[in-house]
């Protein structure tokens, strides 16, 4: 049996060191979750040697299986392995707070300046169309590259367009998992005899964490239905989003948009403007929750929404780490996830049409701007954050100074 030190060194990092390293990543990690994982590897594996490539690859695999923000979950897991629960919280705080604070300040500024209608964000909305289109293309190439997965993706898109609801999305994902079990076979990638990660969480505690995850997932919607309380409703919406979103930050868009419209927290333009602005800041796209929370309940709302969005990640990472060696070799789980991942492509494709395209493109000039942004992203490899940042600056300039 392989010694645990093959995976990672003993947890010797201080909480402050973990936070400081993660904060640097949170200030510089532009480009989305795949880019984040590259930044993480350079910092944690190559530079600091907190864990080796094998351990890092397995952590990435584990977090890809979990719903929620995969890159944030990898950071939380590394922090937990180095410094226990406080280390995990420090790693999350450092990586998340810069973008969360920037988006909350943006929402606050829009309210204070009277530009809450989102008219300043025309260019940002058009860039967002291109960014989502690029995400659909990339995910389809990876997750739905052949006939069966492509069929699941297109079916999921059709159902999502005809019945746009977060609950319908859950049904679509469940159906896709069942289809995966039927149509796909996976080679059993059983553990090779190596020992599990030196998790700071015991198996018994992990069971309680997973039980709490399920209890909140069931209990919060019930509490929100019974109690006429804004904070409970806010926590419920963002906890469900953080619990049920597979496929990265872009997929949170179709889950949150109907809820935001139903609660009338902001206009559709403002929602899409925040989504576009999230492309221009480093860190996880899930910090869009702070932007929406600010509109719903000020600074307290931003904090509640942010914590509720990421709480499932802590519960799932803590609950899964002790059992990863057993889970990673389950062929049936891999088959179900093949179907789920294909459905995620379809859900995102539906969101690309409505609300992303229909909310931004109103004339031929708008379409030409989208095509130009798409060409820059896909053909010329211009980073999404650079395009979004330029669009944000242009929008602010044309609104307030021109």
UniProtKB/TrEMBL annotation:
Transmembrane region(s): 21-40, 89-110, 122-140, 152-184, 205-225, 237-256, 277-296, 302-323, 335-353, 373-401
Classification via InterPro entries: Chr_Tranpt_l_chain, Chromate_transpt
Location in the cell: Cell membrane
Pfam families: Chromate_transp
Topological category with respect to the lipid bilayer: Multi-pass membrane protein
Main location: membrane
Signal peptide: none
The entry's keywords: Cell membrane, Membrane, Transmembrane, Transmembrane helix
Keyword Cell membrane: yes
Family according to the record: Belongs to the chromate ion transporter (CHR) (TC 2.A.51) family.
Protein name per Swiss-Prot or TrEMBL: Chromate efflux transporter
Organism annotation: Paenibacillus xanthanilyticus
Upper lineage: Bacteria, Bacillati, Bacillota, Bacilli, Bacillales
Gene responsible for this protein: chrA
């Amino acid at each position: 049996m392989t010694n645990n030190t093959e995976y990672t060194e003993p947890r010797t990092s201080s909480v402050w060191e973990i936070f400081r390293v993660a904060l640097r990543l949170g200030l510089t990690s532009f480009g989305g979750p795949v880019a984040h994982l590259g930044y993480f590897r350079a910092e944690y594996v190559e530079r600091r040697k907190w864990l080796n490539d094998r351990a890092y690859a397995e952590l990435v695999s584990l977090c890809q299986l979990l719903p929620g923000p995969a890159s944030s979950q990898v950071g939380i897991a590394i922090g937990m392995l180095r410094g226990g629960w406080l280390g995990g919280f420090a790693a999350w705080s450092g990586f998340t707070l810069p973008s969360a604070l920037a988006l909350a300040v943006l929402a606050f500024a829009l309210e204070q300046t009277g530009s809450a209608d989102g008219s300043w964000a025309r260019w940002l909305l058009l860039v967002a169309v291109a960014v989502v289109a690029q995400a659909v293309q990339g995910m389809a190439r990876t997750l739905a590259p052949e006939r069966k997965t492509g069929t699941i993706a297109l079916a999921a898109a059709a159902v999502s367009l005809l019945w746009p609801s977060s609950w319908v999305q859950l049904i679509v994902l469940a159906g896709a998992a069942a289809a995966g079990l039927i149509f796909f076979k996976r080679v059993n990638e059983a553990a090779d005899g190596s020992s599990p990660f030196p998790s700071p969480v015991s198996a018994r505690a992990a069971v309680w964490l997973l039980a709490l995850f399920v209890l909140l997932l069931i209990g919060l919607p019930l509490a929100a239905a019974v109690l006429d309380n804004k904070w409970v409703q806010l926590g419920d919406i963002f906890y469900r989003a953080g619990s049920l979103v597979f496929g990265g930050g872009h997929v949170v868009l179709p889950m949150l948009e109907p809820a935001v419209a139903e609660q009338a927290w902001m206009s559709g333009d403002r929602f899409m403007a925040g989504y576009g602005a999230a492309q221009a800041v480093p860190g996880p796209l899930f910090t869009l929750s702070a932007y929406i929370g600010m509109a719903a309940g000020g600074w307290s709302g931003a904090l509640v929404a942010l914590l509720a969005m990421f709480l499932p990640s802590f519960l799932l990472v803590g609950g899964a780490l002790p059992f990863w060696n057993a889970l990673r070799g389950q062929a049936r789980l891999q088959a179900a996830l093949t179907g789920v991942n294909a459905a995620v492509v379809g859900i995102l494709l539906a969101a690309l049409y409505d609300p992303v395209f229909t909310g931004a493109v109103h004339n031929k000039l708008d379409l030409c701007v989208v095509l130009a942004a798409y060409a820059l992203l896909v053909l010329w490899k211009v980073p999404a954050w650079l395009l979004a940042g330029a669009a944000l600056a242009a929008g602010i300039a044309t609104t307030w100074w021109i």
